């Protein structure tokens, strides 16, 4: 079992705010994500800024692409993204088109996806999936359950590299002990703390304590 | 049965290109859409530019929102959008959060959505749905089928205002004859023609001929 990566999701409204946290935590985390909110508000400028700040860090464009896979992937790649996300209800042709341009895709799991669909994503060459607690579900009182963990385990057993995200805190990491998580993604869990750089270091230390 | 609206989808990569077609066809169509590609590449600037060009036209932000409904909707509204889109696999709390901010939402139908889910969207107060042939499916050889038309009819019978989109041309409008379509959405079908303004007028005339 590997040591999970730590990914910071920059879900700021504006790039001038996102880069403050990016600069603070960029060297502490393994992966930097231009969040959907940021991409929708700033456009490809967000990806370009983060790429210029961190030329050698894995950079993800969280587009949640649902259609026009070729164009969206090409634009993200041109802007400097290494990977991008597609939404689970995108059609297989959309995923294949995006994959061909981008090389690496992550399927974002929302709503009533099925393991039969997940097998189709694998068959299409997509080997990464992001298991979510949606922000809105969390705000409505949802939380990580044993059922979530079982689904993650099944995805891992199928062959997916699984990222977990949604309301993650230092304290909640241990919920995932024993699971071969590929990446933990935290947004506010890092950026909304008093000292984001220190929090990112604590996340890394806790991950190493549990999985190291 | 009403006369369907005509909506132009501006799916250009850059705002400087989108406004050329926006200016050409904006006064011919009923609704202007800042397409997903444009939103992801230009950010909220795309919505702001189109709002400033057309202060009184219904303007849609095609965000295909999957999460963080409150923030995405608030940002789109602040930029000047009247309506926005959510993806069908978003959770109900996400849709409710976006609806509360935006007032009017359209659910984008991709992948394996069900009529049971559709009833939940209606119950949540969402009365618009967009039935797609995805661009990538069309590129893979897909087309409008009797099954598509039956699904659209069922959505209309349930109470949805249904927009139809995906590879629409002047010639394909008659496929929908007899259906109470709310809006036809065309992107390249208008913008990629030799004279987009003339094409938009022809779309309007053909819609009036069939539904008038």
UniProtKB/TrEMBL annotation, chains A, B:
Its EC number is 4.1.2.43. CDD domains: KGPDC_HPS. Residues 5-203 form the Orotidine 5'-phosphate decarboxylase domain. SMART domains: OMPdecase. It catalyses: D-ribulose 5-phosphate + formaldehyde = D-arabino-hex-3-ulose 6-phosphate. The keyword Lyase applies. One of its GO terms (molecular function) is 3-dehydro-L-gulonate-6-phosphate decarboxylase activity. GO terms for biological process: 'de novo' pyrimidine nucleobase biosynthetic process; L-ascorbic acid catabolic process; one-carbon metabolic process. SUPFAM superfamilies: Ribulose-phoshate binding barrel. Pathway: One-carbon metabolism; formaldehyde assimilation via RuMP pathway; D-fructose 6-phosphate from D-ribulose 5-phosphate and formaldehyde: step 1/2. Keywords: Carbohydrate metabolism, Lyase, One-carbon metabolism. Pfam families: OMPdecase. Belongs to the HPS/KGPDC family. HPS subfamily. This is 3-hexulose-6-phosphate synthase. It comes from Granulicatella balaenopterae.
């Amino acid at each position: 079992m590997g040591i999970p990566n730590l990914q910071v999701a920059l879900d700021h409204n504006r790039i001038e705010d996102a880069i403050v946290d990016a600069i603070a935590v960029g060297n502490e985390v393994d992966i930097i994500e231009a969040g959907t909110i940021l991409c929708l508000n700033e456009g490809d400028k967000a990806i370009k800024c983060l790429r210029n700040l961190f030329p050698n860090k894995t950079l993800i464009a969280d587009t949640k692409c649902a259609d026009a896979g070729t164009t969206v992937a090409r634009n993200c790649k041109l802007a400097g993204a290494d990977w991008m996300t597609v939404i689970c209800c995108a059609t297989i042709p959309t995923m294949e088109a995006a994959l061909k341009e981008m090389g690496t895709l992550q399927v974002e799991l929302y709503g009533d996806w099925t393991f039969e669909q997940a097998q189709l994503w694998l068959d299409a060459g997509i080997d990464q999936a992001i298991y979510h607690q949606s922000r809105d579900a969390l705000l409505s009182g949802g939380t990580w359950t044993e059922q979530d963990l079982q689904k993650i385990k099944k995805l891992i057993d199928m062959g997916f590299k699984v990222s977990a995200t949604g309301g993650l805190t230092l304290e909640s990491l241990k919920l995932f002990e024993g699971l071969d998580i590929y990446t933990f993604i935290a947004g506010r869990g890092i950026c909304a703390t008093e000292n984001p750089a220190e929090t990112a270091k604590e996340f890394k230390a806790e991950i190493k304590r549990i999985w190291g």
